[in-house]
Every structure is written in structure tokens, then in C-alpha cells.
Amino acid sequence: MRPAFRNAYLNFSRCLSPNPKFPNTLSFLHTFPTISTSQSPTLISFWFGRETFRSLSSTLCCYSMAGGEAQAPHSSASLEKQFEDFHVQLEESGSLRDRIRAVVMEIESTTRLMNATLLLVHQSRPTPELLEKPKAQIGVLKELYNRLAVVLRECPGQYYRYHGDWRSETQTVVSLLAFMHWLETGILLMHSEAEDKLGLNNSEFCLDVEDYLIGICFMSNELPRYVVNQVTAGDYDCPRKVLKFITDLHAAFRMLNLRNDFLRKKFDGMKYDLKRVEEIHYDVKIRGLTAQGDSIGEQEIQGQS
Amino acid sequence: MTSNDGGEGTSPYMSIFEGFRNELDQHHDRRERCIKASRDITAASKKIIFALQRVRTLGSVIPENISRTTQPYYDTIYSSFAAVAPDLQGLNAHRYARNITGGLQEYMEAISFQYYLEKQEIITREAAEAQLNQGMQVEARIAIGVEDYILGLYDMTGELMRFAITNMATVGGVPQARHDGDGAEISNTRTVLSDLRELSFRLETLDSGSDFHFARDASKKLVVTKQSVDKVERAVYGLLIRGSERPKGWMPDLSDAPREEIEGF
Hints:
The structure holds two protein chains of two kinds.
Chain A (H helix, E strand, L loop, with lengths): L1 H15 L6 H16 L4 H24 L10 H42 L8 H27 L5 H4 L4 H19 L5 H8 L10 H24 L5 H16 L8 H25 L8 H10 L1
Chain B lengths: L13 H39 L11 H21 L7 H4 L1 H23 L5 H8 L13 H25 L21 H14 L6 H30 L24
């Protein structure tokens, strides 16, 4: 029904323009709305109206065809051409995005695998052996990021157009890398080191600073649980070390002028991590459980408070 | 929180984070400049569109009294664009695209509407981009993305609707150009309604692709565009059916038209 209506309107509009050549048709058209308004518009009169329209539209169609006005779309070829180009462009960017998403999904499953192994630190498995497996996965990640960079090379300058597609996965990657790095060395994984590990240092495809910082915040969320479990397993020195690290980290983050955004929210969460670690450190210390040999470290902390 | 207050100087990561601070500050500054420019451009474009709605002819140059009104707003727009052009170069073009797109769309709406009034044609993206970048250095050009262009055209259909209906009410016919650019008479079978239909057909049949934000915006605007076409069609119908009974200054009754439009009449 609807196309018939549209047709009718289309043809009316054409009749409207120069001069109504069909006075009879038009005067007939005039009579019918008066019919339907004089009575209450019942379903029957409505139906009658629609039927009339349909037959009218075909009549008018014939007339306008005869007038040579019915060649399909009149409008500019340039508009049509443009929209064809847009179609191609949008399609290309769509397929590019599909390929990006395919790689990102692999990154995600790799990080899930790494995380599964890393979670074992909470069960107090010896760290060096435990890190072997996830460390082997770093190579896989590097390869995947390389593939991503290759895809992106097809559209130079558009890193940030597709950035949203790998952002959150990359933040997770950073948090895992930083956690592993900290378990090994006890210090923070630097931005450039993270880039090195992922092979992102010499191309347009870089590691966005915000993503790095958010990843570091994610890592800090992991620390309180680690401390709790280490203490349970008998490592009473752990809270002091972690407290020192997270205190430094928190102080460094406070240097940043954060806007009211996601990074800000994550940073705000870090102070709860810090607080929890402080409480554990307190618990251990107040009970005299800390080892004798760490009095130097102890002074270090006190020097800050 | 308490134990580390005042002890910041000892954190070994301080100097590195100072670097991050500078980088983030620059990033936020660029972003905020784009947001501000976008807002200024939007406001000026809206005023241009209001002025253009006072035009009563199609296919001739904008009357001088109206172009005198719009000129200062165009000046504002171009200086706002020039101010953020350095922030939108290279990688940053897409980085802040979402912050400037509002202004770009509104600007597209204004210039495509003016272009249509003057030529009864839809401006191409290239022509729009050339107009935006007139007098700008090559290395400081701003691109109008396909998305900005299309979303701007969506908004422009609402202006065509207003223009068509006001014209029908005041002049008594669907507007169409009767002269070409040089003032010679032309036979023209296209009207605002047929152009509006064609444009909405093109917009509706374009697959918006996999960009979530664009697809969402486009589908929202499509609803409004369809309503605009529908309104003009109803108005034409009303004009035809009740044309001879129409007292002077009568406005087509659109009271039963859907009401939830964003840019309504």
C-alpha cells in the first residue's frame, strides 16, 4: 500500500508544478476529502479513499509518463557517484575492522591463557617456574601485535580511528606484563619496555600512554590479593616490599593532572589497593612477625611517613 | 594514603611520570580546544541556517541582506577551524575526530543548505572540504570525513523540509529552481520534494558499516529524515487536495504527524 501512496504523492507533486493539465481529475480529488470529513471517518470511507487513491495514482502515472517526466531518478549523477564511493569506502573500513577484531580476539585469548597461569601465584607456587609459561606467551603477543601493525599499515594515519577496537585488550596486556615484570624484578615496567616487549617501538603503531597507565592501575588491583596470600604462605616480608612499591607508584600517579575520565577512576581505585596493603603490613608488623634482618627497609618506609 | 603524604620526592618513578604528565596535559588541551571549537562552530552554523531559512527563492544567489547576516558567522567558523587545525593533523585527525565531529556536521548542514538554495544541487564532499579549507595552508587542512558529511546531510534534510513547507505556505507551491546559474530560464522537473526523496533514498540505502558510533547516529537521524519527507509529502497532498480552498497564509496542518522529532517544525 505504502509504495502506491508514495507514487501518488510523487505524481501529485509533479502535477503541481507548472500548470494543472487535468482539471477534471483535480476537481474530482476535491470532492473526496469533503465526503470523508462531513461524516465521521469510518473505516469504510477510509478504505474507499485508499482504493480511489490507488486507481488515481495509476491514472496519473500514465499521464506523467506521457509527459516524459517519469525517467527514474532525475537528480545529479554526482550524488549517485558519491554515494557509491561512500559505500565502497565504508565497506573497506568495515572489512579492515573485521580483520583488526579477528587479531584482537586472538590477543584476548592469549591474555586469558597468561592470566590463568599467573593466577597460580596466589597459590604460592614458586615464582620463577610459574613465570615460564606466560613468558613464552609474550612472543605470541608480539607476533599478534605485529600482525595488527601490518593491517594498520594499509591505512596510514588512522591509528586512532580503530584504537577503540584494541584498547581494553591492550590495557589487560600491559597489566599482565607489568605484573610479571614486578614479580621478577620488583620494579615498575616502563612504558618503553612494554613497547619493546610487544615490538611496538618503531612504527606508527605505538603503545598509547593512557593505555599503559590504565594497565598499570589494573596491575595494582592485583597486589593486595597477592600480599594476603603471600603472608598466609609465611612470607612476612612481602607486605613491606609491596607497600614500598605501591606507595611509590601512587605518589607517581599523583603527579598527573587527571581529567574526569576512565584513568582517573582507575587511579582513584589504586588508593584502596594501597590502603589494603598498608593494613596487612600493619597486621604483620604489630604482631612482630617481620623478619629481623629488614630493619633497613623498615626505616626506608618510615622515612616516608 | 596518610603514610606517603609529603614523602613524594623519594618515589623513583617521579621523573618518568612527569613526562607522562606533560604528554597527557597536551592531549587534554588539544581535546578541549577541539570541543570548544566544535561548540562555537555549531552555534554559528545554527545562526547561519536560521538566516538562510528566510530565503524565499531557489536557484539564485543568496540575497544580499541575508548574506550580510551570515558573513560574520562564517568568519567565526573559519577562524575556529583555523585555530584547531594544528591539533587535527596526522594521527591526531582521528584521535580528536569525535570531539570535532559535532561542529563539522553542523557546518556541513549550513553550507550544504546554502549550496542547495543557490544551485538546487547537493554539494559534494570534495567541494565542501575545499570550501572549508579555502585559504588554509596545505599542511593545516581539515578533512571532512565521510561520516561527518553524511550525518551533516541527514540534518540538512530537516532544513529542506522547513524550507519547502514555509514556501508552500507563503508562495503556494513546492519550490523549484526556474533559472540556472546565469539567470537563463530552464525547464526543471525537480522540486524540493523530489530532491528530498532522492537524498533520503540515498541515505537510507547506504549501509553504515561496522563503526558503532556512526551506525547509531545514522539510524537515529534516518528516523527524523523519514519524518521530514513524510511531512513535505503530507503538505503537498494538503496543498493539492485543498489547494483552491486555501486562504492566504494558510499553513498545512501537520498536527497528526509524528511528534518526537528532534528538529521539528
